[in-house]
Write a structure and sequence with these properties.
GO terms for molecular function: transaminase activity. By secondary structure, this protein is of the alpha/beta class. It contains 16 helices and 15 strands. Among the domains are: 2-77, Winged helix-like DNA-binding domain superfamily/Winged helix DNA-binding domain (Arc Repressor Mutant, subunit A, Orthogonal Bundle), CATH 1.10.10; 117-333, 3-Layer(aba) Sandwich (Aspartate Aminotransferase, domain 2), CATH 3.40.640. The strands form four sheets. The protein has an eight-stranded mixed β-sheet with strand order 4-11-10-9-8-5-6-7, with helices on both faces. Strands 12-15-14 form a three-stranded antiparallel β-sheet, with no helix packed on it.
């Protein structure tokens, strides 16, 4: 049945790509298709459902299935690339029908709020739902401490620029780290210090020295499924960060953007280790739901609440009510939990596949932080291979990769790394893409005399 179903899918997709059927055109009925392809009705139903998940067709009750693909998207379907760069969810992973239902429901429930300026801190009803979600991850705070932001980027930008109760001014960040944080700090001309984070962790003596001597306002860390390394701190390491923060009066911004992907039930966040007075716990909803909703939430120490309330009000008056309403309905209905479980399974399979294929095909010395413990990212060490040339050669072969250069401070020694994302690569793409990468690494090795040694300054 699987082979027959795939033949049906490939045939219909080809008709759409080659414009044999047009956007808005009705497809033959399920019964007609089963006769044409000499297969069961269930095979056609399953094939139509798969095409619907790819947003190529949609169903009208009591009417049939219709083509929705836009002609501008057809070249992408014809020339599918292997994308190891994207940090946005695969569109096919989110049910368009569920999203549409939640949007319609949000319009009904929050119609009055749309015509007002609601609480800049976020809708109280949504904050109460997120408090429940946070409790499941051992973050026991209240709705008074919780803020809704227009994306994690807004939260990081506002927190970076505001004064903290400790009166300190310098910011400590892991190296490498999330590029968006570095861009925000650069735009604000903040004084930033980097501390090396490797697949083996962090230099604890250096961390304590920075906390003690360098007037650190806050330490920005991604303890779980680090971006770009993909690695996580152990419980003891997270506890130690919390203890050092309290000891030296340094705040910690804990970017827990992938908490829903955790496979270890005992992997609590830093906040849970007696860090509530010095830890800001930040969660994005972009990886599980949609980046376009622009939603993130943070729980902050009581000492920061008044300043952050004022700053949030001056930034945007309030986060989109419709977006907040959609998330609240997702949480209340159980759709969020269900979707998160599906995404966890999907991404865990992909990252495990990445490790298996990379370990089998790539040189051992290139496997800088290839992990199968979960998350989205891993890194490949190119050593002295000329990155720009390699990226171009891979691009011409249909494989997109991303150098990790923007994830280092300009003043910090850089490593020659590729960040590998599995968000938009299925297992077949991973196998094919790593084969091509291995081939190009071997080509670069064999022609190393044509490459100049590559050093970071």
């Amino acid at each position: 049945m699987a082979n027959k179903k795939q033949k049906v899918i490939d045939s219909i997709r080809s008709d759409i790509v080659n414009s044999f059927v047009k956007p808005g055109q009705r497809l033959p009925s399920i019964r007609e298709q089963s006769q044409q392809f000499a297969c069961s009705l269930n095979t056609i139903i399953s094939a139509y459902q798969e095409l619907e998940r790819e947003y190529l067709i949609y169903s009208r009750p009591k009417s049939g299935y219709y083509v929705v693909a836009q002609e501008a998207l057809l070249p992408l379907l014809q020339n599918k690339r292997i994308d190891f760069t994207s940090a946005a969810p695969d569109p096919s992973s989110m049910s368009q029908m569920d999203l549409r239902q939640c949007l319609n429901k949000a319009m009904e429930l929050f119609e009055t709020s749309i015509f007002t300026y609601p609480d800049p801190q976020g809708l109280l009803s949504l904050r109460q739902e997120i408090v429940k979600l946070f409790h499941k991850q051992q973050v026991f705070s209240s709705e008074q401490q919780l803020f809704i932001f227009s994306g994690a980027q807004q939260a990081l930008h506002l927190l970076s620029g505001m004064p903290f109760p400790n009166g300190k001014t310098n910011i400590l960040v892991e190296q490498p780290t999330y590029w968006g944080m570095l861009e925000s700090l650069k735009a604000q001309n903040q004084t930033v210090i980097g501390i090396d984070r490797t697949p083996n962790g962090i230099d604890w003596a250096a961390l304590e020295r920075h906390f003690q001597s360098n007037m650190i306002k806050f330490f920005y860390t991604i303890p779980r499924f680090h971006n770009p390394l993909g690695t996580s701190y152990t419980p003891k390491e997270k506890q130690r960060i919390a203890e050092l923060a309290q000891k030296y009066d340094v705040f910690v911004i804990e970017d827990d953007y992938l908490a829903d992907m955790e496979t270890n039930n005992k992997a609590d966040p830093i906040w849970a280790y007696n860090g509530s007075s010095h830890v800001i716990y930040l969660r994005s909803f972009s990886k599980i739901m949609l980046p376009g909703l622009r939603l993130a939430a943070a729980t902050v120490p009581h000492s920061i609440v008044p300043s952050l309330q004022q700053l949030k009000r001056t930034a945007d008056l309030s986060t989109s009510v419709l977006s907040q309403g959609v998330l609240e309905i997702f949480l209340q209905s159980g759709m969020y939990e269900h979707h998160a479980k599906q995404m966890k399974v999907l991404y865990n399979h992909r990252v495990s596949k990445l490790k298996e294929v990379s370990s089998r095909l790539l040189p051992h010395e290139s496997l800088y932080s290839v992990t199968s413990s979960g998350g989205l990212f891993s890194t490949i060490n190119l050593h002295n291979i000329h990155t720009e040339d390699l990226v171009k050669r891979l691009h011409t072969r249909g494989v997109d990769v991303l150098p990790a250069d923007p994830q280092f401070l300009s003043s910090f020694p850089k490593m020659n790394l590729l960040r590998m994302s599995i968000m938009r690569t299925d297992e077949q793409d991973i196998e094919k893409g790593i084969h091509i990468l291995a081939d190009e690494l071997e080509h670069a090795k064999q022609t190393s005399n044509s490459y100049k040694p590559f050093f970071w300054i």
